[in-house]
Design brief:
Bound molecules: NADPH dihydro-nicotinamide-adenine-dinucleotide phosphate
CATH architecture: 3-Layer(aba) Sandwich
Helix content: 40-55%
Strand content: 5-15%
Largest sheet: 7 strands, parallel
Oligomer: single chain
Order of helices and strands: EHEHEHEHEHEHHE
Number of domains: 1
Shape: globular
CATH superfamily: NAD(P)-binding Rossmann-like Domain
Strand order of the largest sheet: 3-2-1-4-5-6-7
CATH class: Alpha Beta
């Protein structure tokens, strides 16, 4: 009898929304899942118990803490960088510290996390970033900083795919459109405007995004690397 080894996955930002759906989906496929969160202690603990995994409190803007934590986890098979923040509004009125914090969480943390994880990652590993359709399309004002941060990820995956390809590690970004979470509730006041930009006029369910991530980290997607996979109901069409 052969024993199949349990794959180890790390999800940055897994306590709520799309991240929690990814945590549940990968755990349901038999992976051992560790995830981080910033503030939602109770939800993170409950989810860790539900999936028999680990929750680690770690703000992604803490670069050295992030690097140390990933280093200490050792060899993993899957890294999903989901933790992200959105800042929208008049750029002339925006607090520059808030914009720099967004860049730190949405660009710097994914980069350092991927590099650190790749040092010890098993052959055939998977790195997936959660970007946004706003990397490709900003159909309204106020999205420059957020869109720039997600467009940076699109460039990052192309480079990292080449850096790690010799070890059969794939690096990709999943770009959701409006998805029903705390960040963007399906019944929020912007819903009609957002749906007006879409071919399929509804918010996605977090489980639909998680399904695409699950496929990307599976064996069938071994030849998909350096790609941006958009799941936005035609928002960017
Ligand atoms: P939510 O705000 O609903 O959840 C965000 C998750 O990330 C939470 O688990 C949160 O932890 C964690 N997180 C946030 N900031 C940090 C941080 N500094 N350090 C560690 N963890 C952090 O967001 P969504 O689920 O909607 O979004 C997830 C990703 O998808 C983001 O990258 C977002 O930009 C992207 N996205 C979302 C879209 C949408 O319409 N919802 C559309 C396109 C892209 P905690 O609970 O502790 O706060």
């Amino acid at each position: 009898m052969t024993t199949k080894s349990v794959k180890k996955a790390l999800i940055l930002g897994g306590s709520r929304g799309i991240g929690a759906a990814i945590v549940r989906r990968l755990a349901s496929e038999g992976m051992h899942v560790t995830f981080t969160y910033a503030v939602s202690e109770d939800r993170a603990r409950a989810l860790a118990k539900e999936i028999s995994g680990e929750a680690i409190r770690l703000d992604s803007s803490d670069r050295d803490g992030l690097i140390t934590m990933i280093d200490q986890l050792g060899a993993i098979d899957v890294l999903v960088v989901n933790a992200g923040v959105a800042v929208a509004g008049d750029p002339l009125a925006m607090d520059p510290n808030e914009v720099d914090r967004l860049f730190s969480i949405n660009i710097n943390a994914p980069y350092h996390a991927a590099i650190t994880a790749a040092r010890q990652m098993n052959r055939g590993g998977r790195i997936v970033f959660i970007g946004s359709t706003n990397a490709d399309r900003s159909p309204m004002a106020g999205l420059a900083a957020y869109g720039a941060s997600k467009a940076a990820i699109k460039g990052m995956v192309k480079g990292l795919a080449r850096d790690f390809g010799d070890r059969q590690i794939t690096v990709n970004v999943v770009q959701p459109g409006p998805t029903d979470t705390d960040m963007n509730p399906a019944d929020g006041e912007m819903k009609d405007l957002m749906h007006s930009f879409m071919a399929i006029k509804r918010h996605a369910h977090d489980s639909e995004v998680a399904g695409l991530v699950a496929w990307l980290v599976g064996q069938e997607a071994a030849m998909v690397s350096g790609a941006a996979l958009t799941i936005d109901g035609g928002f960017s069409a």
